[in-house]
Amino acid sequence: QVRLVESGGGLVRAGGSLRLSCAGSGSIGSIKAMGWYRQGLGQQRELVAVMTNSGTTQYADSMEGRFTISRDNAKYTVYLQMNSLKPEDTRVYYCNADLGVRGQAWGQGSQVTVSS
């Protein structure tokens, strides 16, 4: 079992920055990739960014260039640096770990609110 614990959400003005962190524990050897998703009220959860163990990254088009994902593989921690935030980035952000055949693990969710 993999446990993911997030930190770093909050309230920021448009144009500002926030950094989210997510630390994995438990059966971390089963982790293939770590990343971030986000979800608004009444909306489907959508990909923000993901990074594999080998360092390959994928970003959602609307966030590439503003958001940067990074990992500390030794600590199985993943970060999301969010710059130039917009009000439409207001969502709950979820940390994710791809466990391959074992499925996925999710963090508890972090509220990010961007005021105009």
Question: What level of helicity do the residues show?
Answer: under 10%
Q: H/E series, N to C?
A: EEEEEEEEEEE
* Main beta-sheet strand count, sense and barrel state: 7 strands, mixed
- What is the number of beta strands? 11
- The helix count comes to 0
Structural class: mainly beta
What oligomeric assembly is this protein in? Answer: single chain
End-to-end separation in angstroms reads 40 Å
Give the mean pLDDT.
94
- Our estimate of the beta-strand percent is over 45%
Description:
There is one protein chain. The protein has strands at residues 2-7, 10-13, 18-26, 33-39, 46-52, 57-59, 67-72, 77-82, 91-98, 104-106, 110-115. The protein is mostly beta strands and 116 residues long. Strands 2, 4, 5, 6, 9, 10 and 11 form a seven-stranded mixed sheet that branches. Strand 9 (91-98) and strand 10 (104-106) form a beta hairpin. The model has no long low-confidence stretch (mean pLDDT 94).
